[in-house]
Structure formats: C-alpha cells, structure tokens
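Fold it.
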Amino acid sequence: MTYHPKSDFIAIMMERGYLADCTDYQGLDEALMVPGQPAYIGYDATAKSLHVGHLLNIMMLRWFQKTGHKPITLMGGGTTKVGDPSFRSDERPLLTAEAIDDNIASMKNVFAKYLAYGDGASDAIMLNNAEWLDGLNYLEFLRDIGRHFSVNRMLSFESVKSRLDREQSLSFLEFNYMILQAYDFLELNRRYGCILQMGGSDQWGNIINGIDLTRRVLDHEIYGLTSPLLTTSDGRKMGKSQGGAMWLNADMLSPYEFWQFWRNTTDADVGRFLKLYTELPVDDCNRLGALAGSEINEAKVILANEVTKLCHGAEAAATAEATAREVFEKGGIGEDLPTLNLTAEEVGEGISIVQVIVRAGLAKSGKEAKRLIAENGARIDGTDISDAGLIVQVYKTSEGEIRARLIASNGAVIEEGNLKLKLSAGRKRHALVQIG
C-alpha cells in the first residue's frame, strides 16, 4: 500500500515496521493530527511479568506518547478471569482474583520505565477493566450488549476458526472473551474518549468487534491498528529462548540475561530489531543492520545496550556489557552472571553436575543436560565436561574451612578447592555456581 501519512505517529509506525494493518489509515491519520488523542492496549495478568513478546506493543505506546498523544495501559483484571482463546490450542488455567491482583501489581513497574504517567494531556493512565466488568449484571449485559454480536460472524474469525478446525474444544467461557474485550473499547471510548485500540495481529478480530459495538451503541468513529506477530529469522517465536520466556521484570530474569538475549540476535534480524526496539534514527538502524562479519557483532552490542537501557536503565546495560566482555573476550568469570547459590548442606557428599546444570537454568531437564554434555556443549571453568557422572562435593580442610571438589564417575578427583564455578552451555550461555 502506498500511503503518505500526515501524523507523526503513523509515519513512525510505517517507517519503523510496526504496522501490520489498520481499519482506516486515512481516518486515523486525520484524527491523530489533533494532539492528546487517547489509545489503549490491553494486557491480561496471566503472569507476574510481561515478556519480550509484549515489548513491541509497549514501544508503540511509547511512540504514541512521544508524538503528543495519551496512552492507556489497560490491565485485564476482569478479562483474565475468562482467558483469551485467540490462536490457543487449549484453555488457559483460571487464576484466582488474588493471583490476578498480585500479577498486576508486579507488572506495573515495567510500564513506568517506558511511559510517563500523570494528569497531563499526553500523560499515560493505567486502568483495570475489572472496574466495569466485575459489576456487570448478566441479563442486562446479554440484552444490551450481547444482541449486537452475531455468533456466525464470531465463528468466522481466524482466531476461533483455527481452534475449531482442529476439533479442539472452545468453552462458552472463552467464547465470551471477545465480547468482553469489545465492551472494554466501548467503555474506554465512553469514559475517556479513547479512539484507538492497538494490539498484535492476532487481536484483529477482537478489535473489529469493539469498533462495531461502539459504532452501534454510541455511533462514534473509532479505529484499530495491529502490529505484526514477530518471529526471528530462524523461525522462533519472538521472546522465547532455550531457557524459556524472556521476562521484563528483573526479579524474574536478570538484566545480564536480558542483555545477552539481544546480543545473541541473528545477523539478519539486527536492523529490523533496532528499528522496532530502540529509538535510534532509522538511517542508523539500517546502516548497523547492513554490517557484516565481525562488525555486525558490535551492532548487536549496540542493540543489546539500547534495549536494556530502556528496560533496566543505563547502569544495568553498562554492567551487562562489561560482564559479557569479561566472560567472552578475557575468559574471566564475570561477577554479574546469573548465579546459582548452593549451600554446603545441599551439596553434602555429592550433587551431580547434571542437576547443577538444570538448576543453573542452562538446561530444562536432566535429559537435556546429558545431551548437552554428550555433544560437548557443556563446560566448567572453560574445560569441556565429558563425564555426565561428574559429582560436586564439599569437604573440610585441616583448618576447618569448607571447600568444593569435582569427582569423576570413576572416583578420581578432577579439581578441588574452588567454591565458585563457571558453567557454560555452548558459547553464549553462562552461569555462576556459588557454594557455601
């Protein structure tokens, strides 16, 4: 599509690659010529932290605010009780109200790093849809809102259709989700004048429902805009790694591990990710993304630093880079590496290296840890681990001090004395094991 936007926000969305689809490019573009327009993205509270998969849309809200408009972060205190079935193969586990509230409290800290909250025209606000959903009268809701929805049309949306085509059960509870999300848009338009809902392209059907409902009930013109669902160039879902989800909360994923995730970006993704996840000028992103050979590695460091600065602060980014250079370039231990602390009592007369690898987060299971060892992918203090039967023990010296030693499966002592070990899985994943 060839369209030349007038508003700064739409121009940025198109230039940097955020835009998958829009219900009315020209109408939204014209509306955004007026400063202070409200837009929202909804976040269900299914975990204590958001993850890298949410970061694209958080950046959209950040650009929305930077171009003079008002972002709304809508926390799904109500909708989380139902669970979004979009493109899922099974029903989400239901959470208690207390667990949902705890998750929301934990998630809030991340948003404050990307958005400025307050009472000004372009200050962000955070809302909870439990405010209007929890008090709904079911019969009134069916009569006033439910009558506007065609079941035939709802079944035609790809997010639902794909589930039914696979003959996987879709509960009536989940089927109500899209009605509740549509009602959110209606309420936000009625209460706050919100004209735009944004989300990933998997939310397109839900967004269309909200627009149709608001037009029918209030006769207001509102809009929807979606971002692409990203995968990395090697086909992995964005935000996933061998170690699991890449959380945004520092208490669930260390800033170093977060930094390392971005440093490990494949060459083909560097330019695209710089445009989506940093605020570097587009020309710089294109130039850095076009580098090759060893030069692209420095571009990856810039990407990791810029993304980590936004999420965890400049100091955390600098510390992560320093740790990485210590580990990779100088062969050092790197004090900021993820650390597994084992007490002398836990280790006792022996804990297998397989267990230690799993507990350090370098493998998901003992089977995976053993395969890592068999494929010469595991190292301890820079030396390949070739013996899956290796045991870590503690002992007391003649002076009564606690020390650790490594015992091979044949009983031979491989190393002793060190209470701090550096474990490695492949070339890029490392962890410290501190005993004592």
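Residues 254-328 form a domain with the Tyrosyl-Transfer RNA Synthetase fold (CATH 1.10.240.10).
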